[in-house]
Design goal:
CATH superfamily of the largest domain in chain A: Type I PLP-dependent aspartate aminotransferase-like (Major domain)
Oligomer: heterodimer
Distance between the termini of chain A: 58 Å
Number of strands of chain B: 12
Strand content of chain B: 5-15%
Largest sheet of chain A: 7 strands, mixed
Strand content of chain A: 5-15%
Helix content of chain A: 25-40%
CATH architecture of the largest domain in chain A: 3-Layer(aba) Sandwich
Number of domains of chain B: 2
Strand order of the largest sheet of chain A: 2-8-7-6-5-3-4
Shape of chain B: globular
CATH topology of the largest domain in chain A: Aspartate Aminotransferase, domain 2
Largest sheet of chain B: 7 strands, mixed
CATH architecture of the largest domain in chain B: 3-Layer(aba) Sandwich
CATH class of the largest domain in chain B: Alpha Beta
Structural class of chain B: alpha/beta
Largest interface: A-B, 205 and 199 residues
């Protein structure tokens, strides 16, 4: 069996004796027998490290790793610079916990401060928290930031990622919240229907940019309409797209949220990912979770601490803005290192390459018989096509060639994605195969 | 330390992405108006910057970290190796089931093993942290009462010694929190519980051992009182390390619970996360579990229960954290798992007894994996507080215990050594505590001004909150 216990049997006995116990039974004697398990656990015997590696490797080999990924829908295969993995594997960062003791956590705290700065920069907002679990829970937490006694309903564009809508519904299911999902129209938020749905009970309007179908929304109108109704405007955004698209801050949004996985995290079958949340100065104290602030020590040195803790569960208990305690700190660090490595130019390049590749893929697929589903909308790195064949048949064929095709949607359409990782050659191969399936 | 922004030099960059090999597209959509002010640095700059930051971050690898309630045990490297296998890292969460048989297989095995360890029947891996698990568990309880059309149950009972997440989670799930006072020993006051348990009780949230580190012997009576009133019992798994392999929450009368994989199952804390907080439940609640659960025998697949509360998080939870925990579990196995609790409890009691010469430990009986000291006496006699002693420990390269928690003990320091610390490490903590006490008697000001050897002195937290500076702003602005 494996063990990570340092003390030898002899040391254990010495310590038992020193503490006044004869043996381990003695140490647990105060627990009533009736609740004790009283038998061995029915699990396998322990293994050596070598056996563990072999067993887990063989499990991982039962998965199919696709060489070329053309699927996104909220989780993206962007390039991860080598420096990212190296930095975030440093044991100090990996094995620390929440920086409660500022004097021995300055590196951790400063990295969060840098993260907060970068997320404000990306989204054009004033204030960021130190992360939440993922983009979907970030959207759900934003609802709680906006609700008050009078405004208890939420209007969500039907062009928001359905997984995000599901999480918002679940988060809100415990507390009185009326959730109005306005069906999308032609791959975009239905502007008229959304505006009509806003009223004096609306806490916030949530729109995604680019939306679930990859299309770019004209958010100006939504922002105005939400504010005219006295509601808050929440934008869920793709952080890489923020290098080129108008930001939530520029639109006048009250809260920006999103999934940060694209910023250096592997796909990892869905996690850990990174939920980011930024907001205005005015709504700063409604933010959930940790926030790091700059201050000085008693000698006047610049330093960093966890701050505005009067919002948090360990101080406020049932009056806290959220129950969140552990967040996704190491993922926030990952994003910080990623954004440092990319820099303004690199991030813009990643965004533009993704856009260019996606448009090339779309044009080639169209030539092969996959008509665009929403030809009037402008898209970013994802788009929807009709499928002249059952999507499953196409996906099965692509799979044989190590390609993960777009995501089949419920209505028989396909949601495709391209990033800077997809080369022209890969795209041509995919399109050739797709053409063959049609014939 | 300079920030990464202060290291920036215009036009400095890395060479990461290739030239574009397809036609360029000019989007008509509105462009970003403000220039994107990210740092412009070299790879060398990044490497040195974050190395410098790592050096001023204390992790478990840097030294003893007896932070009560957080189970800062050693994080085996084999966990990280397992989680970095390409067969896991490069898997898209929306791949079809037949291409992720390994992931689903691991979930299935982990579920089976963790259910045996906890005495639960089914488990969801969607929750990303302990608090997220609590929220999930309370929504399960809510779904259960709703399914029985028992709609008057709107209260969750929480002892005043509970972790702060408990009442906060209850509120998120739409419950009113009924705080009940604990007895002097931190255990549940049965009469107080009986007084509040009734037909409006949705459930009770409890951790056992409790937050002062004592095992509540009346546990079966406690869960019975709640059940008889028609409520359900939620186990806060934060303290599972104390009883793992010895006592199972499922056998103490709990109906659902979370496990903190980053505590009990050694996946690292990551500077505050990511963790994972899978939620287990008894069969009668399984149909309400959120997310996709593993199913099938030869061909495995993911399936959402019919009456699921929904989705707590997109996709399948913090899967790579589960891989780490699974590596740890199969390495320890049935002989190794109970050794965790035995040695965690031994280490705590050894410290408790050895420190009780100088310090006041309000609870004299055998503790579990952690214990609480009170510095009330030192505060009264020398004006040296729990915070002062904690800060003085920093000068010994030791991370202080949890301060001022639980709230029911004045000037509390909560010490959790974990099973992976050696006798030598424990002895060094005892020595440090002893020297600090002696120094405090001789020169209290020295301790009140600690730490003396860290890169900063005590920070001004009051002005940080009063004048929040939450992002870097260039000086010329």
């Amino acid at each position: 069996m494996g063990s990570f216990i340092a003390n030898t049997d002899r040391q254990q006995q010495e310590m038992l004796t020193a503490a006044g116990y004869d043996n381990f039974e003695d140490l647990f004697a105060h627990i009533p027998d009736v609740v004790k398990l009283g038998r061995e656990l029915e699990i396998d015997r322990g293994l050596s490290e070598m056996e563990v590696c072999r067993k887990i490797e063989s499990l991982s080999e039962k998965n199919i790793v696709f060489r070329h990924i053309f699927r996104g829908a909220g989780a993206y295969d962007h390039y991860i610079p080598s420096i990212v993995k190296e930095v975030v594997s440093k044991e100090e960062f990996v094995t620390a916990y929440t920086p409660y003791q500022a004097e021995v956590s300055q590196g951790n705290l400063q990295s969060i401060f840098e993260y907060q700065t970068m997320m404000c920069e990306l989204t054009g907002m004033d204030v960021s928290n130190a992360s939440v679990y993922d983009g979907a829970t970030a959207a759900a937490e934003s609802v709680f930031m906006c609700k008050d006694r009078k405004r208890k309903s939420v209007v969500i564009s039907g062009a928001v990622n359905p997984a995000v809508i599901d999480v918002i519904r679940t988060y809100c299911s415990g507390r009185e919240t009326d959730i109005n999902v306005v069906p999308a129209k032609n791959g975009l938020t239905d502007a008229d229907a959304v505006c009509a749905a806003l009223n004096s009970a609306t806490a916030c309007l949530i729109v995604q940019q680019p939306n679930f179908f990859g299309n770019i929304e004209d958010a100006d109108r939504f922002c105005r309409a939400a504010h005219e109704a006295g509601a808050k405007f929440v934008m869920s955004v793709d952080p890489i797209a923020m290098a080129v698209l108008k930001t939530p801050g520029e639109y006048g949004a009250d809260i920006a949220v999103g999934e940060g996985q694209s910023l250096g995290m592997p796909l990892g079958f869905g996690g850990p990912y990174l939920g980011f949340m930024t907001t205005t100065q005015k709504m700063m104290r409604q933010l959930p979770g940790r926030i790091v602030g700059q201050t000085e020590d008693s000698e006047g040195n610049v330093c960093y601490v966890l701050t505005l803790q009067a919002r948090e569960q360990h101080i406020r208990r049932e009056k806290a803005s959220s129950n969140i305690c552990s967040n996704e700190a190491l993922c926030a660090l990952t994003a910080t290192v990623y954004l440092s490595a990319m820099g303004p130019e690199g991030l813009r390049q990643a965004a533009e390459l993704s856009v260019n590749k996606a448009h090339y893929l779309q044009k080639e697929l169209e030539k092969a018989g996959f008509a665009p589903a929403y030809p009037d909308a402008e898209f970013f790195k994802e788009f929807v096509t009709e499928s002249p064949v059952p999507p499953e048949r196409l996906m099965a064929e692509l799979e044989k060639h190590g390609i993960l095709g777009g995501l089949p949607l419920e209505d028989g359409k396909i949601l495709w994605c391209a990033t800077e990782k997809n080369t022209r050659e890969d795209i041509d191969d995919l399109v050739t195969l797709a053409g063959e399936v049609i014939c | 330390m300079k920030t990464i922004f202060e290291r920036s030099v215009e036009k400095r960059k890395l060479s990461l992405l290739p030239e574009c090999d397809v036609p360029a597209v000019d989007l008509e959509a509105a462009d970003r108006e403000t220039p994107l002010d990210l740092p412009e640095v070299s790879e060398n700059d990044i490497s040195r910057h974050f190395s410098e930051m790592a050096k001023s971050t204390h992790g478990v690898n840097d030294g003893f970290y007896p932070l009560g309630s957080c189970t800062m045990k050693y994080n085996p490297k084999v966990n990280d190796e397992a989680a970095s296998l390409q067969g896991f890292t490069n898997i898209h969460p929306l791949q079809p089931d037949h291409t992720v048989q390994g992931c689903i297989g691991l979930m299935k095995e982990a579920e089976k093993t963790l259910c045996e360890i906890t005495g639960m029947d089914r488990m969801t891996f969607q929750p990303a942290a302990g608090a997220h698990g609590e929220f999930t568990g309370l929504l399960l309880i809510k779904a259960y009462h709703r399914s029985r059309n028992d709609l008057k149950r709107n209260k969750i009972i929480v002892p005043d010694s509970a972790h702060g997440t408990n009442p906060a989670s209850a509120v998120m799930a739409g419950y009113e929190v009924i705080n009940i006072p604990s007895k002097e020993d931190g255990c549940v006051d049965l009469d107080a519980l009986r007084n509040v348990a009734g037909d409006d009780t949705a459930g009770l949230m409890l951790t056992n051992p409790n937050t002062v580190g004592l095992f509540d012997k009346n546990i079966l009576e406690i869960t019975d009182i709640v059940h008889k009133a028609g409520g359900l019992c939620y186990y806060d798994g934060a303290n599972l390390n104390a009883v793992i392999g010895i006592v199972r929450p499922g056998d103490m009368g709990f109906d659902c619970m979370h496990i903190n994989l980053h505590k009990t199952f050694s996946t690292p804390h990551g500077g505050g996360g990511p963790g994972a907080g899978p939620v287990g439940c008894k069969e009668f609640l399984a149909d309400f579990l959120p997310g996709m659960l593993p199913a099938g025998e030869d061909q495995l697949y993911l399936k959402k229960p019919q009456n699921s509360i929904g989705m707590m998080k997109a996709y399948n939870g913090n899967f790579l954290i589960l891989v780490r925990a699974y590596a740890y579990i199969i390495m320890l196995g049935r002989e190794g798992i109970p050794e965790i609790a035995k040695n965690a409890v031994l280490n705590a009691n050894y410290l408790r007894v050895m420190l009780s010469g100088k310090y006041v430990i309000p609870y004299k009986e055998t503790c579990m994996h952690e214990f609480v000291m009170s510095l009330e006496h030192e505060k009264a006699s020398m004006d040296v507080t729990a915070m002062d002693v904690a800060k003085a420990l920093l000068d010994y390269g030791i991370h202080p215990p949890t301060m001022y928690f639980p709230l029911i003990v004045h000037e509390a320091l909560m010490v959790e050594p974990t099973e992976t610390e050696s006798k030598e490490a424990l002895d060094s903590l005892i020595k440090a505590f002893t020297e600090i006490y002696d120094k405090a008697v001789e020169d209290p000001e020295y301790i009140k001004n600690a730490p003396h050897n860290t890169i900063i002195e005590r920070p001004d937290e009051v002005s940080a909150a009063r004048h929040p500076k939450l992002r870097y702003i260039p000086e010329d602005n």
